[in-house]
Design a protein that fits this description.
single chain, 192 residues, Metallo-beta-lactamase, Chain A, seven-stranded mixed sheet, two-stranded parallel sheet, 5 helices, 23% strand, globular
């Protein structure tokens, strides 16, 4: 598991997952501790270790993370708490995940030529700049366009309004495929 940051809406299920790892190891259906990757810029990092059932591992902007045949790199976001976006490369395929952040030009580099861009869209365009540390759907579309990303999935959606408006706002600036993130959705990543 790789965590972008430790706000409750991103880690609320972590204790349940850690306990599930404990049960699985106690029953013998899991042999190794669950690895959880996160930053160490505050004390929450210590909670990634749960007895010998889960183990916390450090991520930062200086070190590539190699998980199997994937390589992850991290970019710092503009958010009230330390937060990171991720660029995931597997052979010639790229997935970019932009977590909670305000606009910064470095986001275009995170998403550059990504086969799949998963980007937070916490705000409708009318709310741009009103909630620190978050992007609008239009800004997500702008990142996808400037980065020449292949497919845009809007995530971290607002709890109000009509989500189809987010699609329209992103599509107004990005002419590639756009959709809303949804539970259980499996997306093939084209070989670029």
């Amino acid at each position: 598991m790789v965590l972008s940051h430790y706000h409750a809406d991103h880690v609320a299920d972590l204790p349940c997952l850690q306990y599930a790892a404990r049960v699985a190891m106690d029953l013998g259906t899991r042999q190794a501790p669950l690895s959880i990757y996160g930053h160490a810029e505050d004390s929450f990092f210590d909670t990634l270790n749960y007895h010998h059932y889960t183990a916390g591992h450090l991520i930062d902007t200086k070190t590539d993370l190699h998980l199997g045949d994937m390589t992850l790199t991290f970019t710092r976001n503009v958010h009230p708490a330390p937060c990171f976006s991720m660029r995931i490369r597997k052979k010639n395929r790229i997935i970019a995940y932009i977590s909670d952040t305000e606009w910064t030009d470095s986001l275009v580099d995170v998403a550059r030529d990504a086969d799949l861009l998963i980007c937070e869209a916490s705000l409708y365009n009318a709310y741009q700049g009103m909630v620190p540390g978050h992007l609008t759907a239009g800004e997500a579309g702008r990142i996808a366009r400037q980065a020449k990303s292949g497919h845009l999935v809007l995530s971290h959606l607002p709890h109000f309004g009509h989500h189809r408006d987010l699609l329209k706002q992103a599509a107004a600036v990005y002419d590639g495929p756009v959709e809303l993130a949804r539970t259980g959705r499996i997306l093939p990543v084209a070989s670029g």
